[in-house]
Amino acid sequence: MRGNLISKLPKLLVLLALLQVALVLLLFMKLNSFEQRVDLLAATTQQKPHNGSIALSAAENGPASVQTGVNSQQLRKIVREELHAALADNNSAGQNPATNSQNPVFDEAEMQYQRDMLVQELEFFKTQDEVSHADLNRFMGDIAKLNPQARTELLNMLNRAMNRGKIKGNL
Amino acid sequence: MNMKKLLIPLALLMFSVTAFSGLTRSVPVTIDLVNGNASGDMITARNSDNDFEFIGCGLRAFEDGVGGVFYFGFCQAQLEEGAPVNCFTQNVDLLEGINLISDSSFITFSWNDDGNGGLTCWRIGSSTQSFYLSKQKTGK
């Protein structure tokens, strides 16, 4: 049984490597397409620089900035489109079934950090004789800023703690 | 003179009977942990002899920070000190039920228990009728 598994391991590794190469290629193609579109827009808007475009100068934005005639709204639109397209690709590949292009985009690392902070605060509430109405409302306001899964998880934790009498307070 | 003295209290007595008529109904809070439901009218709970009894529901709406609004509702009841029952819901249709509750309503709600004390509301109802109101002098 173990020998069989070991004999299949190299094939699995090759398969994973191929998958990674394919993903890198896909990312490269997306980036390339994005750059081409930005260049095209820059060329178009430079022909009419005073048509509602924003010229960013070094004086305004520091030494690293450059003169550009790209309209900021157009840039935002492109970035949004690319992000949505990338998310749609992820979903179709089954990498992240919990999100889709119509849902808001959450920073996963930031979400995890916020979630952990709120879990700690929940634990702190358990040490208090009574949690004030204001603190509970602020806590729920913070829960609202989590992604839907973490939101439900934290609400369930709060609900259990209140029903078990571990957190005393009125909503 | 004596007749006048008698008539005034008699008249007051008659008016007071009129002012306090009307059907009344008092529904104390009950909590059924086995079947997962609670009910009671708010005025009876508020006027109960003990300091712990209550029933009610509420809702909150928070901006979620990414352009949307997060809606959250809850119902809760208690009969003994330190033994509240809270159910939470994010179901927007159930939140509408909470919106219909007024300060003299009879409230009833049910929940599903996840087995660890987490209660999710699946039914929220209310009834707002004159017989749940406390008796008040009408000034007649």
- Average pLDDT of chain B works out at 86
Query: In one word, what is the shape of chain A?
Result: flat
Strand content of chain B: 35-45%
Specify the overall morphology of chain B.
Answer: elongated
The helicity of chain B comes to 10-25%
Question: Order of strands side by side in the largest beta sheet of chain B?
Answer: 1-2-6-7
- Count the E strands of chain B: 7
| Percent of residues in helices of chain A | 55-70%
Q: Would you tell me the structural class of the helices and strands of chain B?
A: alpha+beta
Describe the main β-sheet of chain A briefly: none
Classification by helices and strands of chain A? mainly alpha
**Arithmetic mean pLDDT of chain A:** 72
In the predicted model, the low-confidence regions of chain A spanning at least 5 consecutive residues are 47-68, 90-101
Q: Determine the most extensive contact between two protein chains.
A: A-B, 23 and 26 residues
Task: Please state the CA-atom Rg of chain B, rounded to the nearest Å.
Answer: 21 Å
Helix count, DSSP H or I runs of 4 or more residues of chain B: 3
Total domains of chain B: 1
* N/C terminus separation of chain B: 25 Å
For the sheet with most strands of chain B, the description reads:
4 strands, antiparallel
Number of domains of chain A: 2
What is the quaternary state of this protein?
Answer: heterodimer
Q: How would you sum up this structure, described in words?
A:
The complex is a heterodimer of chains A (171) and B (140). Chain A is mainly alpha-helical. Chain A has 6 helices and no strands. In chain A, helix 1 (2-46) packs antiparallel against helix 3. The longest helix of chain A is centred in the N-terminal third of the chain and has 45 residues, at 2-46. The relative contact order of chain A is 0.06. Residues 47-68 and 90-101 of chain A have low confidence and may be disordered. With 140 residues, chain B is α+β, with helices and mostly antiparallel strands. Chain B has one domain. Helices cover 22% and strands 36% of the residues of chain B. Chain B is elongated and about 80 Å long. Chain B starts with a helix and ends in a 13-residue tail after the last strand. Chains A and B meet through helix 5 and helix 6 of A and strand 3, strand 4 and strand 5 of B.
